[in-house]
TrEMBL record:
EC number: 1.14.13.-
Upper lineage: Bacteria, Pseudomonadati, Pseudomonadota, Betaproteobacteria, Burkholderiales
Protein name in the entry: Aromatic ring-hydroxylating dioxygenase subunit alpha
Gene Ontology molecular functions: dioxygenase activity
Signal peptide: none
Domain of life: Bacteria
Organism: Variovorax robiniae
Annotated SUPFAM superfamilies: Bet v1-like, ISP domain
Keyword terms of this UniProt record: 2Fe-2S, Dioxygenase, Iron, Iron-sulfur, Metal-binding, Oxidoreductase
Residues in Rieske domain copies: 21-124
Keyword Iron-sulfur annotated: yes
InterPro entries, A to Z: Cholesterol_7-desaturase, Rieske_2Fe-2S, Rieske_2Fe-2S_sf, VanA_C_cat
CDD domains: Rieske_RO_Alpha_N (cd03469)
Length: 345
């Protein structure tokens, strides 16, 4: 393995771009006690107040750096286990039991983050600095229109850089080979030419002259959250609802660990057809879908960390190249925007 110098752009991409919403974990991960999760280059403390509302702080007490997540929930505050310092959900220290009236009391000394619970997941706004009001969390209709779509969230943690997961999803052609034994990816031409089509929120990378046969296209979108979408044609034995839709979003945990969120979706109004598909999914189809994901995971986890430094790409990789350039451009813009502030500081 070759050691590659890490540029500031790579450092930023490695931990995740700023001022975006990211999925953090399934909502079921956070119950009665505070939870500590490492994501996006830092540790977060998540907890629910007495009404069930979710809050998030950086998991570091401003006094001595102890993990707030090991403390006690006091409604919208966490009490640090080390010396009892109480930090409110907006990052303000409300009480220092060991030294009442000290300058730490009343100070906004801890980073706080906005969180929402949508589509079965916890979402966090990864702002450069704490903000009073974040931009709206805009998700694709497949995850928000419950009258038209039904979905299941599949969550997994994959060893490796999350950008390799992005590359994998932006590569429709791998389905023809890696997943050729799958019940839904055995059809279609093993050779293809691809094109890129711009959309209002991103682009579609698609096979030319082939649609609704195999894994024929991938959409990349930026709506204040980065998400990807694709469709897999289903045989009639897969139940009602047309093509099987997958919506994905991915979050770095560390340079060697990633969160992979995949929502499995069918377009079905409430009623017997939706109930039929959900029954089929849980009893027949879910295991097959996990098998396909496992094929991806095992392959990616066994790639060398510097595999992308030794590539020889061809026409099928235009989507991967486009996405990488786009992300690097966003990272460059964020770094350039921060330079005046750094110079002033």
């Amino acid at each position: 393995m070759t050691t590659i110098p890490i540029t500031p752009v790579d450092q930023l991409l490695e931990i995740g771009l700023k001022d975006l919403w990211y999925p953090i974990c399934p909502t079921s991960f956070i119950k009665e006690s505070p939870v500590s999760l490492r994501r996006l280059g830092r540790k977060f403390a998540f907890w629910r107040d007495h009404s069930g509302k979710l809050h998030a702080l950086e998991d570091r007490c401003p006094h001595r750096g102890a993990p707030l997540s090991q403390g006690v929930i006091l409604g919208d505050r966490l009490s640090c286990p080390y010396h009892g310092v109480e930090v409110r959900c907006d990052g303000v220290v409300t009480r220092v039991p060991g030294s009442p009236g000290c300058k730490l009391e009343g100070a906004q000394a801890t980073r706080f983050f906005h969180v929402e619970e949508r589509a079965g997941a916890v979402w966090l706004y990864n702002s450069k600095e704490s903000v009073d009001t974040p931009p709206p969390l805009v998700l694709p209709e497949q995850l928000t229109d419950d009258a038209e779509y039904s979905s299941f969230l599949c969550y997994a943690e994959w060893k490796g850089d999350y950008r390799y997961v992005l590359d994998n999803v932006m590569d429709p052609m791998h389905g023809t080979f890696l997943h050729k034994q799958s019940h839904s990816m055995a059809e279609g031409d093993s050779t293809a030419k691809f094109g890129i089509r711009a959309t209002d929120t991103g682009f579609v990378f698609e096979k030319e002259g082939q649609r609704n046969v195999n894994f024929d296209w991938t959409e990349w979108a930026d709506t204040g959250v980065h998400w990807m979408r694709l469709e897999i044609p289903y045989p009639k034995t897969g139940g009602p609802g047309g093509n099987f839709i997958i919506v994905g979003s991915y979050t770095p945990i560390s340079p060697t660990l990633s969160c992979a969120f995949h929502w499995r979706v069918r377009k079905l109004a409430p009623g017997w057809q939706r109930d039929t598909w959900r029954f089929l999914y849980k009893n027949r189809l879910e295991a097959r879908h996990w098998h396909v994901l496992e094929q991806d995971r095992v392959l990616i986890e066994n790639m060398e960390p510097d595999a992308n430094q030794h590539e020889q790409l061809y026409q099928h990789d235009l989507g991967v190249v486009r996405l990488r350039r786009h992300l690097r451009g966003l990272a460059t813009q964020q770094l350039e925007a921060s330079e005046p502030a750094l110079a002033t500081a």
